[in-house]
Amino acid sequence: MTGTVQGLATEALGPTITIGEILVEIMATTVGDGFLEPQSLMGPYPSGAPAIFIDQVSRVGGSAGIVASVGDDDFGRLNIERLARDGVDVSAISVIDKPTGSAFVRYRQDGGRNFVFNIAHSAAGDIRMTDAARALIDRAGHVHVMGSAFAIPGVSDMLSTAVASVKARGGSVSLDPNIRAELLADASGQALLANILAATDLLLPSGEELFVISGHSDEAFATAHLLKSGVSEIVLKRGRDGATFFSPDAHRIDATGFHVKEIDPTGAGDIFGATYLTCRRMGMAPDRALVLANAAGARSVTRQGPMEGVSTLSDLDTFLASVTTGVPA
Ligand code: ATP
Ligand code: MG
Known about the structure:
Helix content is 34%, strand content 21%. By secondary structure, it is an alpha/beta fold. The two termini are 37 Å apart. Mean pLDDT is 94; it is low at 1-5.
């Protein structure tokens, strides 16, 4: 299960799947300090990093499925309807006797954010290995591991099962290491990360995550170390500054960020990662996949709502034709 598989499995091997939280997001319409007084809110919007990711896999042309749980309520229904409408296999989403998970968010004057979460005690915190989940895992060609999902009890075991199953069939694995820092504070969290990293073909870190998981504070060192230990490609996300591709032969490609008006940055990393991975699984070279992912990330921040900024390949072509700055063609 170590890095013996070079490269990413093509679409023909089976769908890209992920396991993790489905949420609704409800946003304050004003900037300020939290939720201590009545105020106007906007939402519910479909959300949850794994859900945003898998929706974009499907929109951009990949086959896609998710293992998750929602409640028997409108917040659950709006998520299932959106994912199904966008072509995601929703057969492994359980509808259970707990409310759908939610996140209320308000931006502060200083750019920071205040949240009120209902995740741990919601359906999102209660994801189960059902027969439908097993069936989806059994026919998957690629597993995307969303680090945020490690916070849900039992999900790391389910992800490990899915990774082993997919690897045994010659499939591939990607990792977005957006793991809560507390989870890496103890030995079991570190062992879990090491196991998933050993099976990872494509790594999609942003910001400090590269340094945290590699143990090196220098970008070149950190990427070289990870590529030597079996990861076959790394794409580092740099927010408005774009992204960089790294491969083991010391090959590197930089993509400058496109100039857009940022309305809502939530979900950009998930939409970027889904676009890059799916373009690669569809057979595109890294440089083309990077251009399209950079465009998808930029386009996503121009829309209010974390999943509202997903893009088809045709949306990305239109976007690329309309911008004059960014990556070299
Ligand atoms: P999140 O975890 O909030 O979803 P992230 O930190 O994983 O995001 P970012 O680096 O913020 O990922 O964004 C992913 C990609 O989206 C960037 O690499 C870039 O291509 C694009 N992007 C994000 N923000 C902007 C922006 N303001 N302008 C242009 N492109 C952007
Ligand atoms: Mg991220």
